[in-house]
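Hi D.,

Good news: the full-assembly prediction came through. Inputs first.
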Amino acid sequence: MVKALVVGSSIPEIREALGAVASVEEKVVLAYGKAAEDGSLEQLGVKVYKLKSTHPDHIVAAVEKIFNELKPEIIIGWITKNNRAALSYFAGKHDLPMPTDVTSLKIQADGLVYTRGFLSERATAKEKVPFPAVVLINQKAFKPVETSGQSEVIEITPEGEIVKLLEVKEKALSGINLEEAEIIVGVGRGFKKKEDLELAFNLAELLGAQVGASRPIAADYKWLPEDAWIGISGKRVSPKLYIAIGISGAPQHMAGVMNSKIIVAINKDKTAPIFKQADYGVVADLYQFLPVLINKLKERKK
Amino acid sequence: MGDIVVLVKPALNPDMVRSKPDGTVDIDAIPLKLDDIDANALFEAQKLKQVLGGKIAAILVLTWGPADKRAKDLRMVAQEALARGADEAHIVADDSIIPGDPVTTASAVIATIKKAGLNPDIILVAEASIDQTTGQIAGRIAGKLGLPFISFARKLEVKDGKIVAERDLEEHIEVLEAPLPAVVSVTQEINEPRPPTLIQIRRAAKKPQNYYKVADLEGVATPVKQGLEYKILTVSRKQTIIEGDTLEEIAEKLISLLEQEGVIKL
Ligand SMILES: Cc1cc2nc3c(=O)[nH]c(=O)nc-3n(C[C@H](O)[C@H](O)[C@H](O)COP(=O)(O)OP(=O)(O)OC[C@H]3O[C@@H](n4cnc5c(N)ncnc54)[C@H](O)[C@@H]3O)c2cc1C
Ligand SMILES: Nc1ncnc2c1ncn2[C@@H]1O[C@H](COP(=O)(O)O)[C@@H](O)[C@H]1O
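Then the structure:
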């Protein structure tokens, strides 16, 4: 009989990971962080351990404890940073395989067959690992379980801290929901300074679009809040129209926009890789082309 | 005085993906390059060296084969790591652990640290690689060695035998402190690495590259992952470049194309 331990810090994560192992007979949950404070934990209908901490060292110790008691074949959760940190440490300690960014999963008697992104998502890999295995699944790749019922809830005391947490700083996030946007204007390093993004915002306003960005613009230069970050390590979007401006088309960026219906690229370098991954390309300096495009759209709107 | 160990992955270059006629990935035809964020880790190591002293040792484990066909690529990656500030390179190249998996790689790194007599104060690893993007080697090594682990470091400082780092999470940043030795995974934002200078490249040619076989090492795990199928993701985009005599003409054409596609409404 295969047993699974689901690890997560929010109820949607936990329900989705439970969905990914729906065929498994025995399932228990480790809910940490804000999931441990969530009242609906009581309605998951499975045995739940709760841990009121997000410290990876505490998560490792809690997983270790449950692992020793239950001996699960599968330890599974969303691909969040805390899951990645804690579960890679745990997997290393026990030399367990740990497929990550998993988009489909088949649980067999002797192991797991799964698919995942490969080569910065230019390809897919189908592989198999033996039990026990740690699995990190992509967000929204699996159908969440709806089941409910009374859960048995056991609290685990945080312990095992090696690294000391000195301070938590909040990030300025905008709260935009790029995942739902129908049109997205994406800005990249072709923009020379923050003020110049005004051009992209003007265009976006005329099209009823949201503004997203490549990683350097959002994470490194911080010209936009980080929830504008699109790509393999940021948001995955699926608009009807994606307009990439001053973006080179690195595979890690394009991984986030591959489900767009139409992709337009505006780039001054005609050899930029983005043109091979776009439906329509404009080879031009954005500083010259955007004002013209904006004017034309304004004329048309009148 | 301890060493600074930096992991450097000879990674398949995703910008040069090659496919076989049946649409599967032609892995053997894809060249290797020094993994992107490993350049950031090497750059950070140079800064840490000013405080910690010691030497910077790069460790490379070949995970794509066959080893003899990869020899030149591998030497080039090691040489680039040396040009980017490593003082010596330790390289594991053995067909028995190819294609590698993270269990094997982590054990090979640890075995190499022992074999080479390294005494790390800090082990720097990139948050994720460009070919596998599993982002788990750092955590594995910390877990196997029982060392403090700081992941996703966006900022790093070493003072009085302690490390203070800013850990980058989805919604906030944690400031953390750990004793040395420690394992740290770094993000791309930690610094902006400069390409090596001509002098650095020339000096690198004289720095040591030590090669190891699995038989030279102790405790290297055999790969458990079984590859079943590797398929190229084909994107069928129109790839139409919009031409015109003036930018006005191009803008007009673009607008009408997007209207025809039904993706904008004016
Ligand atoms: C593990 C890993 C994960 C990553 N995750 C992500 C991710 O999630 N998202 C992401 O975006 N990146 C990610 N990256 C980084 C990625 O590899 C690229 O470095 C990044 O996407 C490049 O951003 P860019 O296109 O804005 O900048 P660049 O690559 O510098 O491109 C700028 C482009 O602008 C053009 N340009 C310059 N001036 C003008 C002008 N005046 N007019 C028009 N065009 C102009 C240039 O020709 C160039 O093509 C990741 C990298 C790694 C290794
Ligand atoms: N074969 C390897 N040799 C050396 N370092 C590696 C190897 N594989 C992974 N690493 C290190 O771990 C990082 C993350 O890799 P990954 O877990 O594949 O995403 C890489 O960028 C390297 O710093």
